[in-house]
Amino acid sequence: MDRNSYLLLPTLQTETQTQDENDISVWRFRGSDNATKASSVTMRVICFKLFAECSPDVGKVLLPLAHGDPSVYPCYRTSIHAEDAIVDVIRSGKGNSYGPAAGILPARQAVADYVNRDLTNKVKANDVLITVGCNQGIEVVLQSLARPNANILLPRPSFPHYEARALFSGLEVRKFDLLPEKEWEIDIPGIEAISDENTVAMVVINPNNPCGNVYSYDHLKKVAETARKLGIMVITDEVYCETIFGDKQFVPMGTFSSIAPIITLGGISKGWVVPGWRIGWIAMNDPKGIFKSTGMIQSIQQNLDIVPDATTIVQAALPEILGKANKETFAKKNSMLKQNLELVCDRLKDIPCLVCKKKPDSCTYLLTKLELSLLEDIEDDMDFCMKLAKEENLVLLPGVALGMENWVRITIGVEAQMLEDALERLNGFYKRHLKKTEFSFAALKLSSDNGKM
Ligand SMILES: *Cc1c(COP(=O)(O)O)cnc(C)c1O
């Protein structure tokens, strides 16, 4: 991991409000504060704070398990086939030009063919737009929906980029809950309760980052019916659809496009473990042509006209990359993730302050409930993660970064040995901060009798 640490560790500090002597009254320009609100809800700010707590004095290597990018670890390297596809494009000289704003046609056709494998209401190449990663799809769609007073419904917990971009676009954010006791299903009555005549869309992340669940056919159908009733579109983020290691069957939201219009966001970043290639897509599942009548397609295309294009090299390789993908392509990665998950869940049995309520079926995270009542001097999830960083050089993500106070997220998309080390440190940390009651002494004694201390 040392080799690639420059990719994972922050090099840029955000809080550099240093005193300076300049008299700025003579200058007419100022930094815009437009992004301040938006950036305050991103994970980066919290991760910087946690990294700042870590120090070489601890004498242990820093374990960054707050955010995840498996691609920095050699064991998750993408297939030679995908790499060859890129090399071939470069050697052919066919990736050197600007492409159209919507993406080059072969790439759009390749995405249409790929998503159509699982759909009855097929999409055409024309319904697909290529973006700079899935994130640009989020940006462009939210920007296209923004108008005065409009609001959007986002899940809690969520992938923070949605809220950041909604705020930046001037869209009001309203949150509905994902229910831990119901395997993270969407609180459907809650959606109806928070929506009104200015609600324009709701976001479904499936497979779900950060909860790791995969929604059932019946549940997604209910979501579509609710969207229909409210007159809103469903934006579904399926960037993790090739990262499923449990037995749940993935059902694309586009299956229900005859009930309500669906925008599917996807990409190769997570499935193929190549987030640095920056390719994603927007697919419009809309057999009734509602996006056209409402001007949505036009708005999205106009937005794409004025943002950077996805790199032509990777677009040109997309037919080869997507066309040849099958279960085998993702099998090794998914089985490593499954093994890592089992490892963590097994070790957590001895660390009852972090409880896994439901083993994830997908994605690269484990979301655990923090049992504060077992701990002596920990205030909340942020305090837990700050002290853990300071004492153990171990960085986990406090749930508050995702809108879930007193939960903690552990990345499992790393090398197994890192998880072994991390869980050992967590165990020591837990024992040091355990509330000293007769019961806990008895429990500790029991575990040491079992040779686990
Ligand atoms: C990682 C991620 C993205 C961003 O994907 P890129 O292709 O890297 O831009 C979007 N949505 C979710 C839910 C993600 O986890």
From TrEMBL:
Required cofactor(s): pyridoxal 5'-phosphate
PROSITE patterns noted in UniProt: AA_TRANSFER_CLASS_1 (PS00105)
GO (cellular component) term, any one: cytosol
One Pfam family in the UniProt entry: Aminotran_1_2
Sites of N6-(pyridoxal phosphate)lysine modification: K270
Residue ranges of domain Aminotransferase class I/classII large in the record: 76-426
The keyword Transmembrane helix belongs to this UniProt entry's keyword annotation: no
SUPFAM superfamilies linked to this entry: PLP-dependent transferases
GO MF term (any one): pyridoxal phosphate binding
InterPro entries: Aminotransferase_I/II_large (IPR004839), NHTrfase_class1_PyrdxlP-BS (IPR004838), PyrdxlP-dep_Trfase (IPR015424), PyrdxlP-dep_Trfase_major (IPR015421), PyrdxlP-dep_Trfase_small (IPR015422), TyrNic_aminoTrfase (IPR005958)
Alphabetized CDD domains for the sequence: AAT_like
Annotated GO biological process: L-tyrosine catabolic process
Keywords tagged on the record: Pyridoxal phosphate
PANTHER family: AMINOTRANSFERASE TAT1-RELATED, TYROSINE AMINOTRANSFERASE
Family the entry assigns: Belongs to the class-I pyridoxal-phosphate-dependent aminotransferase family.
Protein name: Aminotransferase class I/classII large domain-containing protein
Native species: Capsella rubella
